[in-house]
Amino acid sequence: MTISRRDLIKVGMGVGTALSMPSILRAQTAPTDARTVRMVMGNLTVFDPIFAVDDLATFHGLAIYDTLFSLDSKFMPQPQMVEKWAISDDKKTYTFELRDGLGWHDGTPVTAADCVASIRRWAQNDAGGKLLMDRAKDISKKDDKTFVIALREPLGVLIDLLAKVSQPCLFIMREKDADRPVTEQVIANIGSGPFKFNHALAKPGASVGYDRNEKYVPRGEPSNGLAGGKIVNVDRVIWDNIADQQTAVAALQAGETDFIWLPPADIYPIIESDPNLALQVLDKAGSDWCFRMNCLQKPFDNVKARQAMLHLIDQEAILRVIAPDPKYGRTVTSIFGNNTPYSNDENTGWFKKGGDPEKAKQLFKEAGYTDEKIVILDPTSWPEAHAALQVLAAEMQKIGVKAELAPSDWGGLVARRMNKGAVESGGWSILPTSDSDFVLGNPLSAPYLAANGDQAWYGWPKSDEYEALRAKWADVETLEQRKALARKMQRVWWDFVGDVRLGQVVTPIARRKTLTGLIEMPQLIAMWNMQKASA
User: Fold this and answer.
1) What pLDDT is recorded for position 3?
2) Of all helices (H) and strands (E), which one includes residue 122?
3) What is the mean pLDDT of residues 470-499?
4) What is the largest CA-CA distance in the chain?
């Protein structure tokens, strides 16, 4: 960071100072334009939300693509692109018919073939999708508007999987795009959703733009969570990448931007003291923060080294950095989060106030650690994570571990985290991330809760014992049976240590009060429904 967090507060609390800073946006879009919304979102570098599991790529996907089903405000699946669907008596054949009015941004109609290809591609990179393909006998087009999923055995959670909000979501792409291998990024940016990507406005590293899709036909039902009619009330949305938080806050106060996605906790007092600004929690469930270790490379290919990190972490110290106000943060020890039906305390004896550095040091020794360099991917454009990783690196160094921060913006982290190699070959050892506490209630779709090696989320943990238990989730019928299964899964998880939790955080967005109608749902930020009043 170019300024300290304390300096940020000093600068921000002086509204006059903020307003006196030079404009960075006025020349591009007048701040009084009520039909254009500017959002400080970060650096969008990945445009394919199936190719890479990434927040910004997913928000981008939500804007330009559509989904077969969506979740309403009660987290119940509702049809979106689907008009009607039916299931056979033996519960093995599902037939889906698309609704009228679906069209791609290039003017061609959406067909059932597009849906079939999209499901197959998504399933290659999604834990729940892989389960679907394991059970599927065939996924095929019946006619231009109808497709069929035929199963070898019943899968009661099928509709839930198709409607999931955890990444990667099942966005429907054109058949010719979805036929691309999942290891290759789709860059056409042509969907059928309520917004069209404006290629002319794209400025790599600076901003991207979206225009209202005038030909989009919304559903007739009222907007409800991420379901119902997707009504777009503005003509254009521009995402700005403003890495310097001081500049971003100044732009928000000056009315030159309308929204900051991840305002650092230090600026909360600034927002609350400004009569024109507001903090709003869109994800009431909050996020569980963790770091992932590269389980394929030294030293974390050794379970003892991973267990060492579990004992080293002092969650309270991390939370003082990422959520200084206690109302926004709390500790978390369950892999199923704090607020889901499956949260439990199985095998959590490692958790101690202040951590246990001596135990961690002992376990590194037992792992055969010999001063290998440990590279921690450090997204400096994510201030809380950057600060938390400084604490982590310092604690590792105190016990004699050669930890080194590798600073970059978030886009740089996303690019580097795909490297499975050793640090000498451009790989990595530790990276920070977070996921919705709500999403962690479903191990079939939560990316972090898979431990199937090369097919798992970044870090690639592997435990056959855990995976055998996770595979049973789809067939367990009662809540109590799932709770019992969750305890067994957690016991195994904390033995092999698939990741290390840092705490649960509820993070508000910052907005001008003229921007209203934001959809409050876990995990995703939708741009339809919002409205902007004239200043």
Assistant:
1) 30
2) helix 112-123
3) 94
4) 69
